[in-house]
């Protein structure tokens, strides 16, 4: 062989040997370990269990594929479990399903309570009054108070019995109750239950829940692993069964493990004694006979309050009636509508402007003005008194529109100039007499603005005196006339003459009625 070729072959062999040795050093032991882990199912299961929870949580966040994949398997497992032993699922749901059922039953009983409440509302006995006061004080419906107070009972003893072995787990008794051997009674109750089940073959899931022994009843509440038995004297209300069910659920919830693993040691069940003692309820007949002084005090206070309110109502009604009588008796006032409610009064109608003020009529009646509201529409009454007053007022306005005019610087008046004024004054005096009024006619003379003030004042007085004398000559009584000069006209050159001079040279009339 050629020396060069032989050297090359030796070099390649040395290189392969080195690679093999390097591979063995780097991967030999680890590769064997990997193969061993892959071939051993227990090792793979252990490693998978360490990451499966995190893997499921991560996968659940990405969509519903995981839920859809697991749902058929879970449903099938539940179905097989229920078919194999339905009591397993029933025992698990017992602490939850009981409150839900009681809530539904309580809702249906609510309607019955309302109906009973409406029926008992008609009762007026002293005992019913006490129940109503208790309902108001406690906030409970009246029908519920009736049930609680009508049904008299007392729970004498409570037994907690292990369902499978029939052994007594716990016992509680009321004060003054006659207590026999609790274990013996527990064994008796278990024997009676087994006898009833064997003899009468109750339906699946149905067990005796109530037994009668003379004056006593035994109420039994069944649970998956234990039962409560109560010795009751009298007739307890229907909600007593709900109380027992609730307490038995609490026992199963707290002592579930102890009930499952029970082998005769009852010491752990001393922890549920408060639940057993809470079942020792009752209401005896002496409670119904015992009437609290507070009830009588409340009844007296209510009667006194009712009497005071009745007195105030009658007094207010009489005052309101008296006020309406005043309004109806007053001429020029017509009451169309009158209402009264809760001390508030309203009245409306028609009122002549000449009629008396209704607010003045309210004085002296005892009614508060702020508690009476009135609404009056104006109208003219046909009453003769008001008609006479209106004629007087109309004639008074007619006289005050009369005027006697004079020439410049003259106070002379003619009889013809006074004829219209004297006729109106004569009619005024007649209307005043019919209306029962006493009047005086003031005759007031005035002048224009020309001439000295002193001359004008004297001229105005002369004009008034001449008109008054002329009216007396035409039959107007002198005692009904009063002559005087009017105010001196003010000269105002900037505005000129606001009135014609002849309108200022006049005598006017003003009627003054005595109060």
Q: Short summary of the structure?
A:
The chain is α+β, with helices and mostly antiparallel strands. It has 17 helices and 13 strands.
Task: Explain how this protein is built.
The chain has 515 residues and is α+β, with helices and mostly antiparallel strands. It has 4 domains: 3-35; 91-289, Beta-Lactamase (2-Layer Sandwich); 298-378; 385-513, OmpA-like domain (60s Ribosomal Protein L30, Chain: A, 2-Layer Sandwich), CATH 3.30.1330.60. It has 17 helices and 13 strands. Helix 4 (65-84) packs across helix 5, helix 5 (86-120) packs across helix 7 (142-150) and helix 14 packs antiparallel against helix 15 (415-434). It starts with a helix and ends with a strand. Mean pLDDT is 77; it is low at 285-291 and 494-498.
Considering the chains and any ligands shown, give keywords for the structure.
4 domains; six-stranded antiparallel β-sheet; four-stranded mixed β-sheet; 17 helices; 13 strands; 56% helix
Average pLDDT metric: 77
Largest sheet: 6 strands, antiparallel
* CATH class membership of the largest domain: Alpha Beta
**Are there runs of 5+ residues with pLDDT below 50, and where?**
285-291, 494-498
Q: DSSP strand (E) fraction?
A: 15-25%
Count of β-strands: 13
From the 3D coordinates, which CATH architecture of the largest domain would you assign? 2-Layer Sandwich
Q: How many structural domains are formed by the residues?
A: 4
User: What name does CATH use for the topology of the largest domain?
Assistant: Beta-Lactamase
Element order, helices and strands? HHHHHHHEEHEEEHHEHHEEHEHEHEHEHE
């Amino acid at each position: 062989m050629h020396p060069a070729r032989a050297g090359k072959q030796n070099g390649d062999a040395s290189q392969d040997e080195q690679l093999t040795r390097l591979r063995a050093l780097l991967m030999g032991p680890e590769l064997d370990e990997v193969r061993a882990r892959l071939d051993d199912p227990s090792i793979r299961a252990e490693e998978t269990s360490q990451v499966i929870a995190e893997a499921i949580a991560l996968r659940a966040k990405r969509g519903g594929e995981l839920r859809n994949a697991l749902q058929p398997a879970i449903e099938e497992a539940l179905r097989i479990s229920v078919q194999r032993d339905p009591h397993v699922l029933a025992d698990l749901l017992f602490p939850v399903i009981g409150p839900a059922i009681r809530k539904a039953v309580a809702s249906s009983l609510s309607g019955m309570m309302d109906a009973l409440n409406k029926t008992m509302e008609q009762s007026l006995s002293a005992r019913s009054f006490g129940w109503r006061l208790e309902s108001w004080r406690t906030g409970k419906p009246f029908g519920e108070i009736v049930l609680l107070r009508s049904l008299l009972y007392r729970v004498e003893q409570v037994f907690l019995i292990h369902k499978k072995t029939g052994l007594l787990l716990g016992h509680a008794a009321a004060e003054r109750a006659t207590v026999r051997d609790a274990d013996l009674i527990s064994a008796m109750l278990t024997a009676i239950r087994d006898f009833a089940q064997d003899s009468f073959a109750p339906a699946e899931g149905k067990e005796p829940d109530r037994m009668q022994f003379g004056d006593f009843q035994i109420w039994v509440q069944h649970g998956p692993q234990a039962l409560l038995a109560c010795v009751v004297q009298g007739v307890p209300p229907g909600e007593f069964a709900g109380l027992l069910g609730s307490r038995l659920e609490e026992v199963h919830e707290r002592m579930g493990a102890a009930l499952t693993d029970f082998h005769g040691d009852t010491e752990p069940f001393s922890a549920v004694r408060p639940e057993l003692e809470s079942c020792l309820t009752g209401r005896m007949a002496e409670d119904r006979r015992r009437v609290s002084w507070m009830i009588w005090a409340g009844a007296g206070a209510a009667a006194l309050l009712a009497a005071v309110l009745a007195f105030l109502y009658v007094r207010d009604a009489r005052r309101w009636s008296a006020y309406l009588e005043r309004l109806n008796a007053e001429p020029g006032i017509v009451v169309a509508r009158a209402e009264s409610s809760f001390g508030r009064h309203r009245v409306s109608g028609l009122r002549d402007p000449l009629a008396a003020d209704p607010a003045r009529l309210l004085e002296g009646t005892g009614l508060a003005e702020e508690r009476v509201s009135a609404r009056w529409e104006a109208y003219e009454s046909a009453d003769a008194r008001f008609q006479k007053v209106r004629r007087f007022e109309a004639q008074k306005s007619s006289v005050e529109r009369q005027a006697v005019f004079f020439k410049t610087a003259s106070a002379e008046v003619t009889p013809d100039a006074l004829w219209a004024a004297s006729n109106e004054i004569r009619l005024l005096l007649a209307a005043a007499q019919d209306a029962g009024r006493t009047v005086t006619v003031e005759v007031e003379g005035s002048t224009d603005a020309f001439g000295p003030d002193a001359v004008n004042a004297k001229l105005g007085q002369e004009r008034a005196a001449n008109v008054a004398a002329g009216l007396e000559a035409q039959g107007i009584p002198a005692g009904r006339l009063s002559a005087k000069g009017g105010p001196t006209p003010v000269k105002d050159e900037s505005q000129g003459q606001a009135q014609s001079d002849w309108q200022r040279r006049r005598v006017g009339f003003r009627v003054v009625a005595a109060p």
